[in-house]
Amino acid sequence: MQCQRSEAAAVGLDRRSAGRAREGRQRRLRGGIGALALVAGLSGCADDPTYTLAPPLAGLEHVEAAAIGAKVRLSASPTAVAVASEEGQLGGRIVRFSFLVADGAVAVDTAAPTLDHTFKAAGSFALQLEVVDDAGRSSRVSSVLHVQPALGATCSDVDASACVSGRCRQGVCVVLACTGAENCPDDLRCQAGQCRRDATTAGRVSEKAP
Question: pTM to 2 decimals?
Fold first, then answer.
């Protein structure tokens, strides 16, 4: 791979190209591969000792609310790591995921990008995910999950306008916690720690709602 091509791919990818690369790596991560895109930092050629990749950006996906006793899956699928080209020939790899649920549970360190957790009491519980790549660099993201005695549907696949992320899963809004824009799908922005629809997109969704 030529140095000029690597620099252009790492630094000069437009948002649409970056989005396609990110989506492909996210699908791989959900399958347990543990490698995804984006955000490359480059200070030389790929075969140059000064060549470096940017640190990972932790991202966490979970439902916004759950009922007591329900099993909840926490997923690191929005996490992003650097690649040196759009094709991803050179890139980082997440080797450790550390999940912490602040309901009295201990932190779980695992090589898997998901954790299933059952809440035994009602309340609002802080969540934290730390990811570490194969170069020892880390990133941390936080979120909150609300647990209730019983839970009714608040959204649907047809109308997710009530959801900040515009995503609904089995009647419950999905939260995409982010540390940077690369954690979010192309139609969302990372604001105040969550991937959110911008005002224009939210308005269009609301107009379609019955």
Answer: 0.73
Domain that includes residue 134, residue range: 3-208
H or E segment at 204? helix 199-208
Beta-carbon contacts of 191 under 8 Å, excluding residues fewer than 6 positions away, are: none
Strand partners, 28: none
Query: What confidence tens digit (pLDDT) does each residue in 118-152 have?
Result: 999 999 999 999 999 988 999 999 999 999 999 98
Q: What is the pLDDT of residue 198?
A: 78
Phi, psi values for residue 123, rounded to 5°: 145, 180
Spatial separation of the C-alpha atoms in residues 117 and 127, rounded to whole Å = 11
Helix, strand, coil proportions of the chain in percent (round to 5)?
A: 20, 30, 50
Q: What is the pLDDT of residues 184-196, one digit of tens each?
A: 999 999 999 999 9
Do residues 182 and 57 touch, judged by C-beta distance below 8 A?
A: yes
The domain tally of the chain equals: 1
The CATH code of the domain that includes 69 is 2.60.40.10
